Amino acid sequence: MAQFAAWLQSSAVGVWTRESPSIWAYPTVLTLHTVGLGILVGANAVVDFRLLGFAPRLPLPALAPLYRFMWAGLAINAITGAMLFASDATAKAAQPVFYVKLTLIALALVVTAVIRKRVEREGAAHADRARRESTTGRAAVVSLLLWTAAIAAGRLMAYL
Mind listing the pLDDT tens digit for each residue in 83-121? Predict the structure, then answer.
């Protein structure tokens, strides 16, 4: 892994992101990474809070287009995250919190997919009943906690 990290850090993308004086390099990549995370987690939070009982008159099927925004946010995050990783790959690859962050993101995406499948398969009426029975509600809480923990891990990485 160390050899791959060293190669990645010395690649054109890694050097450009890290060393370019252009505003389009590190500052823009970091800004886009933050915006992508905001889109992904924000859209996810809207669905999760609705499942937890906020805005009960808002029909769950009306929130289905938010999943497209989640995918767009994830794509932005994956691309910019890879660029940010490449800019300091040897240090980031040695941080256990980096792997914790990736694991939390993967788990949050799995929970989000489970929630979506359940709501689509069983319908909005069942989701409201399941929320009251706490099955879907627990999944929404887990989703919110995983995204919060992933963000916290990312912030911790910025200080290490």
Answer: 999 999 999 999 999 999 999 999 999 999 998 988 777
DSSP conformational letter for 25:
T
Amino acid (1-letter code) at residue 133: E
**Which 3-state string (H, E, C) describes 54-81?**
CCCCCCHHHHCCHHHHHHHHHHHHHHHH
How far, in Å, are 69, 74, 110 from residue 89 at the CA level? 28, 20, 26
| Span 125-129, average pLDDT | 61
Instruction: Look up the pTM and report it.
Output: 0.87
Task: Give the length of the chain.
Answer: 160
Decide: 127 and 159 in contact? Cβ < 8 Å: no
